[in-house]
Amino acid sequence: YGDFLTAHARVLGAAEAYLSRHAASLPVWRPRAALLKNDLLQMGLPVPAVHAECLPEREGTAMGVLYVLEGSRLGGRVLSARVAEGLPRTYLSAFHQKGEWPAFLERLGQYLDESDAVRRQAVTEGAVATFALFRQSAERQD
Predict the structure, then answer these.
(1) Would the pLDDT of 142 be above 80?
(2) For residue 141, what pLDDT band results from cuts at 50, 70 and 90?
(3) How far is 19 from 39, CA to CA, in rounded Å?
């Protein structure tokens, strides 16, 4: 579990910093990096340095990044129930509030419908790049 949180911590801070710089073009979102950091500290684990950010600065990329981070809240709901008793799970328990996920999907759909092919491609590339960062972080051995 500690390895899982550490792998997420390497990426989440950079992804959220990216989203913060592009907040004007995004729906409202709630960051979770501080929750993740707190869970690591409660477990007595170091907070790792975040990956150097390598997300492209293209219009639309941030929406793809946000799609991955918001989607991970769904996985968090499932995983939080499997965390051993006594371990912190604030990060995984930061579920969507009622209606947030459908509202996000509706906003994403509108964004894609209103976008040209280049911006739609940037959304896809943002999601793929974010998934790749999480995968690379999980595969990393420290």
Answers:
(1) no
(2) low
(3) 22
Contact 95, 73 (CB under 8 A): yes
CA distances, 134 to each of 7, 68, 88, 119 (Å) = 7, 10, 21, 23
Q: Could you identify the residue written with the tokens 């981070």? A: 69
Say what percent of the chain tops pLDDT 90. 88
Q: Is 86 left (phi over 0), alpha (psi -120 to 50) or beta?
A: left
pLDDT class for 51, splitting at 50, 70, 90? confident
Q: Model pTM? A: 0.93
What CATH number matches the domain at 2-139, 3.40.50.2300, 3.90.79.10, 1.20.910.10, 3.40.800.10? 1.20.910.10
Helices (H), 22-116: 33-42, 61-80, 100-113
Q: b/e string for 29-67 if b means 16 or more Cβ within 10 A?
A: eebbbebbbebbeeeeeebbebbeeebeeeebbbbbbbb
